[in-house]
Amino acid sequence: MIPRRFSDLPEYAFPRLRALLERYPAGGEPIAMSIGEPRHPMPAILHEALAAHAIGYAKYPPIDGTPGWRAAVGDWLTNRFSLPTGTIDPDRMILPLNGTREGLFMAAMALCPAEKNGKRAAVLLPNPFYQCYAAAALAVGAEPIFVAATPENGWLPDYTSLPEDLLARTAFAYYCSPSNPQGAVASREQLGRLAALAENYDFTIAFDECYSEIYPDGPKPAGGLEAALAEGVSLDHVLVFNSLSKRSNAPGLRSGFVAGGPALITAMNRLRSYAGAPSPLPVLHAAEALWRDETHVEANRALYREKYALADEILGDLPGYTAPRGGFFLWLETDDGEAATVQLWRDHGVRVLPGAYLGRGDPRFIDGMNPGTRYIRAALVEPPGALRPGLEAIAGVMRKTAKTQTPSEATA
Ligand SMILES: Cc1ncc(COP(=O)(O)O)c(C=O)c1O
């Protein structure tokens, strides 16, 4: 017998995309823009550290990592987000993850009750969203609340304006900045207000920051820890998640971390001791070297900046285009995201993802509409040479959309 707990989950986005497109041959040399898998070279220090420590595969690794790994992550957080020295106690406030996805899921398992204040617990998540958040809410029997991220709110859902009764039963919240899919970046003040809200209503807020190191010229995206401190809020309700998948082009390494309030980390550590897969020692050594190195991160960012510039050049004058402020996705408005996806594949071999596959209708927001329906998500992962024809094809499709809109619709 199979539990019905997950029966509300739609088919995952990528099998849905395959089913949508398999009826059509590619209309040109395929250009991969659907999956957020970095394609830039892996840094040499990763290979070197793995090779030097391969003997570590002979041992069961500790669930909380090694002292060297914890110190490297603690120092990175302190430097990157200008935290006062001593804010992070690496031994009590950081845990390794096999990529952030499993950690984001397990955080809810460890920290989110099924009920709060005598009611079914609520889990807040942005909509559209990274799909793991909804599965985590359902796994603990809580109700996922899909808070719409729209152009009107700058694609950053404002949890502070939710009704009192909903906040009173909120037990856990996910928040993503820089956001996937829209590339929106929350200010330090916005993040700080969310941390304060979590403290006031006694819920845990999980800031998903795995795109924090990919951004155009200008200020670095702010992070949840610095924001909470600037707002005068303790870290007792705050967790941040980060990863080497995007920062260091190593999605297959499966290496990330969670950091935050000691009691939250202790609870996660306890559950992970029973059910978590510890990070292998060679992976921890490689991760330690990567968190201590910024040279490869700067080089990586420079490559993305070239591609942001290319996107601006090719799509910049189109009303459905907003330049991302972080991350490596474009979130582009069309007439109908699914139809545009088919057209791009069938006519040009360009593979993008319909925005609807990342969103959900929730009757509490925007009349229950799925906020992704009119959008496509395009990943800037291919090298510029391959990306140019992909972006040109997208521009062609969006130009047709712009022509079918009235001027007021185009600027709304
Ligand atoms: C918003 C967001 N969070 C988390 C992840 C998970 O990354 P990883 O498990 O590779 O660290 C991804 C990956 O695409 C993502 O887009």
Fold and architecture overview:
This protein is of the alpha/beta class. The protein has two domains: 13-40 and 296-411, Aspartate Aminotransferase, domain 1, CATH 3.90.1150.10; 44-293, 3-Layer(aba) Sandwich (Aspartate Aminotransferase, domain 2), CATH 3.40.640.10. It contains 16 helices and 14 strands. A seven-stranded mixed sheet has the order 2-10-9-8-7-5-6, with helices on both faces. Helix 3 (67-80) packs parallel to helix 12 (281-291), helix 5 packs parallel to helix 6 (132-139) and helix 14 (337-348) packs across helix 15 (384-404). It is globular. Bound molecules: pyridoxal-5'-phosphate.
Give every kind of bound small molecule, once each. pyridoxal-5'-phosphate
Overall shape: it is globular
Uncertain regions: pLDDT < 50 for 5+ in a row? 407-412
Return the CATH topology of the largest domain: Aspartate Aminotransferase, domain 2
Secondary-structure element string: HEHHHEHEEEHEHEHEHEHEHHHEHEEEHH
Strand order in space, largest sheet: 2-10-9-8-7-5-6
What is the averaged pLDDT score?
Answer: 95
CATH class of the largest domain, please? Alpha Beta
Say which CATH homologous superfamily of the largest domain is assigned.
Type I PLP-dependent aspartate aminotransferase-like (Major domain)
Count of domains: 2
Helix content: 40-55%
Number of helical regions: 16
Main sheet overview: 7 strands, mixed
Strand content: 5-15%
The CATH architecture of the largest domain would be 3-Layer(aba) Sandwich
Between the first and last Cα atoms, what is the distance in angstroms?
A: 49 Å
Provide the structure class.
Answer: alpha/beta
Beta-strand segment tally = 14
Radius of gyration: 21 Å
